[in-house]
Amino acid sequence: MSNALTKKVDLGTKISFGLGGFGKDFGLNVINVFLFFYYTDVVGVSAAFIGTVFLIARIWDTVNDPMLGFIVAKTKSKWGRYKPWILIGNILNAVTIVALFSAHLFEGTAQLVFIATTYILWGMTYTMLDAPFWSLVPTITLDKTEREGLMPYPRLCATAASYLAGGAGVYLVKILGGGDDGQGYMMFGVIAAVLAVASAVITCIWTKQNFEEDPKAADTFNIAAARRAIFKNEQFLALVIMSLFYNVAVNFMGGLNLYYFTYVLGDAKLFAKSMLFGGIVGVGSLIVFKPLVMKVGRKALFNVALILPLLAAITLYFAAGVSADLKMVLASLAGIFHGLSSAMFWLILLIMVADTVDYGDAKNDVRSESILYSVNTLVCKCSGALTGFLVGISLTAINYIPNQEQTAETLTGLQFIYVAPAFLCLIAYFIYNRKYKLNGTELDNVQENLKLKYS
């Protein structure tokens, strides 16, 4: 393992690992941005039903995700512990993405059962690919500086993919469907599926791990060790709770974006333009991340990332009822806030999860990348499901009717439910600054302990 402490990460590994993030997050954002809208406005299923399905799926994930993380931790193969799951998970997830956007081909009870089954399977297969993907990070390098040079690559590709999926999706659905939105969404799902599998192949072939995983570790790792890896690591728990509040806020806004732009701002294409500006700024911020973090520090950047979604929500609130030109400016500004926040939050969060893996190793003598990353994935999915459920209930409560002009009361309600959850970002900010300690000297001490342990 000493190689991972000193060896520079080569450019080929950075690029191949980065491209793995592109296909993985393209598919994820197709689901996050379009699936709820597809179900309500194309398939014609009630928002309350879809929200309930999302919630039930995540309740199942509280069992499934840690279990998958444990299985991954016990895996032994000639390709290592993680790469087989990255490939298999992406292939299975690709199938479920296409299936999700095929619900319009069914009717009645069969359609509802199909929606529930495919969404649960999608969540299971996403964990199967996501947790092992990020678990590669500590096996590529344990050096803090090298990690900060490696992580912008997958986050750069993932950010580009997310904004490409969101921005281009509005147009591609129309082009691919030729007037049939159901067909358009399904073909868009096929594109996402192909990208996911292709990116997984690239990562598995060309990403180099700089130390060999100890096969004996899989034999000695057990349920008790898994529990200790999670609950004895207070720094990881602080990250998890903070991430939950941030993700609930951002996912709630994300789940309502198409509704907000379509009905409150009166132009769904304005959403694509907002995403474009967000993508440009998000990608640009990742390109300059390493010199930026060296200049102002990781903590300052993360604090900015936690506050920006609130500023974006307030900006869009005031975009309603203004002139078309000013509306375009405010929507673009909100997109920039979202793009910068998302890019910085996910990049730094995933670096910090790797740091908590090291912390657990140094403090508790338990090292389990797959367990911690699977729990992190679970938290992200649970926040998405919770917000999906709340979006469904909220749309029903404000008397939203798909594909019709909304009443003034419904539009006012839509503005309120879009902005209010954003204030949860303030709670995330408070938790991070009061409870998370792995910055500066504290993190340096962990790194020094590991160098002594593995030298």
TrEMBL record:
<feature type="transmembrane region" description="Helical">
    <location>
        <begin position="85"/>
        <end position="106"/>
    </location>
</feature>
<feature type="transmembrane region" description="Helical">
    <location>
        <begin position="413"/>
        <end position="432"/>
    </location>
</feature>
<dbReference type="GO" id="GO:0005886">
    <property type="term" value="C:plasma membrane"/>
</dbReference>
<dbReference type="GO" id="GO:0006814">
    <property type="term" value="P:sodium ion transport"/>
</dbReference>
<keyword id="KW-0813">Transport</keyword>
<keyword id="KW-0812">Transmembrane</keyword>
<feature type="transmembrane region" description="Helical">
    <location>
        <begin position="112"/>
        <end position="133"/>
    </location>
</feature>
<feature type="transmembrane region" description="Helical">
    <location>
        <begin position="301"/>
        <end position="324"/>
    </location>
</feature>
<dbReference type="InterPro" id="IPR039672">
    <property type="entry name" value="MFS_2"/>
</dbReference>
<feature type="transmembrane region" description="Helical">
    <location>
        <begin position="378"/>
        <end position="401"/>
    </location>
</feature>
<feature type="transmembrane region" description="Helical">
    <location>
        <begin position="153"/>
        <end position="173"/>
    </location>
</feature>
<feature type="transmembrane region" description="Helical">
    <location>
        <begin position="36"/>
        <end position="57"/>
    </location>
</feature>
<feature type="transmembrane region" description="Helical">
    <location>
        <begin position="336"/>
        <end position="357"/>
    </location>
</feature>
<comment type="similarity">
    <text>Belongs to the sodium:galactoside symporter (TC 2.A.2) family.</text>
</comment>
<dbReference type="InterPro" id="IPR001927">
    <property type="entry name" value="Na/Gal_symport"/>
</dbReference>
<keyword id="KW-0769">Symport</keyword>
<dbReference type="GO" id="GO:0008643">
    <property type="term" value="P:carbohydrate transport"/>
</dbReference>
<feature type="transmembrane region" description="Helical">
    <location>
        <begin position="236"/>
        <end position="258"/>
    </location>
</feature>
<dbReference type="Pfam" id="PF13347">
    <property type="entry name" value="MFS_2"/>
</dbReference>
<feature type="transmembrane region" description="Helical">
    <location>
        <begin position="270"/>
        <end position="289"/>
    </location>
</feature>
<keyword id="KW-0472">Membrane</keyword>
<dbReference type="InterPro" id="IPR036259">
    <property type="entry name" value="MFS_trans_sf"/>
</dbReference>
<dbReference type="GO" id="GO:0015293">
    <property type="term" value="F:symporter activity"/>
</dbReference>
<keyword id="KW-1133">Transmembrane helix</keyword>
<protein>
    <submittedName>
        <fullName>Melibiose:sodium transporter MelB</fullName>
    </submittedName>
</protein>
<feature type="transmembrane region" description="Helical">
    <location>
        <begin position="185"/>
        <end position="206"/>
    </location>
</feature>
